[in-house]
Please model this.
Amino acid sequence: MKSNNALIPANPGFFLLEPVENSNGTIVEIVLIPIIAWQLGDQGEIYPISMIQRIDDADQAIKDCNGVVHSPFGDVYDSVEDWIDEKNKAKEKKSHKPE
Model:
């Protein structure tokens, strides 16, 4: 199978969300990493490209130019704050789960 590796320039305003967690694993801050391009994968998947590297971490979300957050699992949040709240609630629920 032929490798595509095509790059498409990203429009301004797209950011990868890099969570910063405290010692309890709660997200306390978000670092916004500008997305400068998109890379097409062999199976039609699309990877964000930052100035540092191609991002293919399955747990990172993208903020679009309208402030909407898209998770890699197809979930959509109205804001970064909504995404943080959901991530923190999920971690809290997981940490209180009986073993």
In short: The CA atoms of residues 20 and 73 lie 20 Å apart. The chain has a mean pLDDT of 85. Strands lie at 7-9, 15-21, 27-34, 37-40, 46-49, 62-63, 69-70, 76-77.
